[in-house]
Amino acid sequence: MTVRGVRAAARIVARPDGRGGTALPVLEGEGPLAPRRTRGSGAEARVMLVGAMSGPLGGDRFAVEARVAQGARLHVGSAAATIALPGQTKGEAHYEVRITVAAGGELRWLPEPLISAAGSELYVTSRVDLAAGARLVLREEQVLGRVGEEPGRLGSRLTVRVAGHCVLDQELACGPGAPGGWDGPAVLAGHRAVGQLVVVRPEFTDRRPAARMLGEGAAITPLAGPAVLVSAVAADGLRLRRVLDEALALLDQDAPLSGT
Question: Where is the signal peptide (predicted)?
Fold first, then answer.
């Protein structure tokens, strides 16, 4: 009997509710992807992605789509870390994220880390399309291996477009079988946690934050258009989160999100 991986998708659509808040007319998921609305604050709607089963495993294909309409505010997080594990099906798993934010819309995409367990093989693709005037905070955190184990094979690609123009398109491959040098001084330098923040705000068009280092393992880099990238490496996930939180606090001083 042939064992096939799981196919699952989740969709989130956020729109103004006409009363100063944000409605979620579409909030649906399949199998291991279970989006749940939680208590928000002000005009912001909050959604938590809850893992209903283990995964992604070898051969699985997951997809999450989020669409934010003009004037809506959405915060998406996850209840726990996502752990890529080996499965009965050979071949890599795929996890696809598709995000669209209209002009005047705002999204905070802040999931918990992705952990690449030994023997796993996962490729993550994230595509973000923002209209002019949209706002975004997107965080990605990847931890290579659990405590005391080597990582699996992990590939990721993040593409961000603002008003139809590409401001970021980067790819990273780590673990067994990845191109040589991924663990060397030019890439991770022996660290086992890597992450980034992408922050897009209209205010950055006129007041773009300056490029700067944040300690030894992180940097703020202005991108083309009203966007900034924070890249960081750390010894573990806890230290990585601390660095990214500090970077976001600095950017909030330059141009805070609406309502903050």
Answer: none
Taking residue 208's Cβ as centre, other Cβ atoms within 10 Å add up to 17
Q: Which amino acid is at 22?
A: T
Chain position carrying tokens 């199998």: 31
Please state whether the peptide bond connecting residue 56 to the residue before it is cis, i.e. omega within 30 degrees of 0.
yes
Query: Rounded CA gap, 69 and 72, in Å?
Result: 6
Tell me the C-alpha to C-alpha distance, in Å, between residue 159 and each of 96, 138, 218, 259.
12, 12, 20, 27
Q: Give burial (CB, 10 Å; 0-12/13-18/19+) of 232.
A: buried
Note the pTM of the prediction, 2 decimals: 0.91
* Cβ-contact 258, 106 below 8 angstroms: yes
What's the pLDDT tens digit per position in 25-46? Answer: 999 999 889 999 998 888 999 9
DSSP string, 126-193: EEEEE-TT-EEEEEEEEEESSTTS---EEEEEEEEEETTEEEEEEEEEESTTSPTTTTSTTTTTT-SE
Structure tokens at 174: 């780590």
Read off the tokens for 230: 């924070």
